[in-house]
Design goal:
Length: 240
Amino acid sequence: MAGSPALLLLLSLGLCCNVTQGQRNMMAVRFHNRNMKHPQEGQRLELECMPYNRDTGIYWIHLDKDWNLHFIVSSTPVPRNTFQGNKRTSPQFEARWTGNFYVLAVKNFTTQDQGIYFCTSNINQVLHFSSGQPAFFPVATTAAPTTSTDTTPSRQATKKDNWHSRDPAEHITHTAITRSSQDTTKDNSQQGPHAGTSHNNIPSFYCKMVMWVNLVCACLLLLTAITITITHCQNLMFPC
């Protein structure tokens, strides 16, 4: 549909809201099947329009998901239908008058047919709009998140596979090192808390022995000096 007619249609909608304030909601569009909530892809969808005046015809309008208006068909009680391009029939739509309401049928509902459907009527040069009927596919539900218990076995299986895929030589070397470390730890634990004391006390023993020898030598030298001093004093006091 061209931009100018679409804009004119929207302006007419705004004007009629004030002119027909007491007549709003007199026209309504709804699913012909009262139990339907969302159409399915590929199914036949039927919509019905309750007209404001049964003696006048209506126009079916489609507002798509991109907010573009599309003329579908003009229908009269005669009956006489005029589809887009001034054609009497359409490979996609059907229209009829039942005596109480108008019916629009979408033969094969597809993604392009999603949107909001309206019916309009021109009475006394006033354009009346119906309420809109949304027609969209059901919203796809997302899968529930997986729990941690689902991933634990896979992680354990991955660790097990990695262990078996290791090089055998590397596994043997690692095992030997581990056992050697365990044996060393075991030997040290069996020796007790005083293990290694004799090796650590050997330097201390020699140091103490040298210290005592020096101390004895110093005492002997001191004793000799005292003896010489006493003898010399006696000689001075009692000369021969």
